[in-house]
Write a structure and sequence with these properties.
Helix content is 35%, strand content 21%. The protein is α/β, with parallel strands linked by helices.
Length: 159
């Protein structure tokens, strides 16, 4: 309590408490297939995801991703793929993988803005998208959001 003067008392304000949920790191135990042609980005993203508890399978090209999926007997919960890659685009990778793993969720990554890739027909509006560069926390939040979504390849875009 503090004195307001003339004998009036007021409640002291509560000290601010940090939001525990916001401070807690977002973790997971799912299996993620990461397809990224840039080795440095692929390695960094793999470390970000593995550091949050995910099992991460990697491929440097779409064609390689198909082989990874064929060799992996267990579930793959999420495809994280670059949109623009040599050979097979991220969209083509997702379409082919969804044909053999129908429950697969998809998160697209790109250095282009979501407006640019939608405008140029590389992706449909409303797909899960994360623009590069991103921090480990932003990636973790987006991955959790997509994994929590109710349908494959669902989610709103993030810039």
């Amino acid at each position: 309590m503090r004195c307001l003067g003339a004998g009036k008392l007021a409640e002291a304000p509560e000290p601010a408490r940090p939001d525990v949920a916001a401070a807690a790191p977002l973790r997971g135990s799912e299996t993620v297939l990461l397809v990224e042609d840039d080795e440095m980005v692929r390695n960094l993203t793999r470390r970000m995801l593995a550091g949050r508890g995910y099992t991460v399978l990697t491929a440097s090209r779409g064609e390689d991703a198909m082989g990874v999926v064929e060799r992996h007997a267990g579930p793959i919960d999420l495809l994280v793929t670059d949109v623009v890659m040599p050979g097979m685009s991220g969209r083509a990778v997702a379409q082919r993988l969804l044909a053999v793993r129908p429950g697969l969720k998809v998160l697209y990554l790109s250095g282009y803005t979501d407006d640019a890739i939608v405008h140029h027909g590389m992706l449909e509006p409303g797909v899960a998208f994360l623009q590069k560069p991103f921090s480990a926390d932003v990636l973790a939040r987006k991955v959790r959001e997509v994994l929590a979504g109710s349908s494959p390849a669902s989610g709103a875009s993030d810039r």
